[in-house]
Amino acid sequence: MKNKYVKRSKISEAKFRKIIMYFALELDSQKIATLTSLNRNTVNRYLNRIRSQIVSLCEYQASKIPHYATGRQVNPVLDPSLSAAPDSLPVFGIQSRNTHIYTEILPNGVHHKLRHFIKNSQKSETLSVPKDWRHYDGIVDLKSRWHYRIRPASASKRAASELQDTIEAFLAFARKRLTTINLNGADHINLLLKECEFRFNNRDDNIYQLLLKHFRENPLS
Q: Which pLDDT tens digit goes with each residue over 153-191?
């Protein structure tokens, strides 16, 4: 079936546009399935593929921001669709640049080591971290719902305050969305986290039009 948004699509362009529209409105898969008359499993497959593309879109947007740093050169990378175990919810690093947020789930090996380090820090407001993690502005532990601040040594008090305000705004924005999946062994946690990042960073844009444009230029495979 011809569909300029999806390669080898089995649904029409009109159906796909409806999926994107309802996704932009943050409807769940059951409601989208009902409104589009599609099977829920089919809708879930498309939503996961859309979210996988959003991960790449987030990375592209991040690469355009001056002074954006990533730990990927010194740490192994998680597969974007890697699941979180029920007793091992992720810790992620967070950066704020120009009122935009960038997140990165810490690799499994470091994740367990860092969680032990956080546990022994007695929840101090500002966290001292190894050199490899100092490009982050904060560390977020989803299991304990705790945000550990990392204050840049060269930042002014005003700049540090604005940076933390943006991070707190993002966490408030994301908390409800992540809580709705209960964070109990949620599959594809990085896809959901990146979706929150994408929605927050494009909060002043039309998500529906933005995604349609992206998929016209980069069809789902």
A: 455 566 667 778 898 899 889 887 776 654 444 557 888
CB 200 within 8 A of CB 170: yes
Residue type at 219 in one-letter notation: P
Question: What is the distance of C-alpha 122 from the center of its chain?
Answer: 27
86 φ, ψ (degrees, to nearest 5): -55, -35
**DSSP state, 186?**
-
pTM: 0.79
Reading the block at residue 211, the tokens are 């995604």
- Inter-residue contact 105 to 190 (CB < 8 Å): yes
Tokens of 55: 């991960």
Residue ranges, the chain, pLDDT below 50: 71-87, 153, 182-185
Signed CA dihedral, 151, 66, 217, 35: sign only = positive
* Helix intervals (H) in 64-220: 108-119, 157-179, 189-201, 207-217
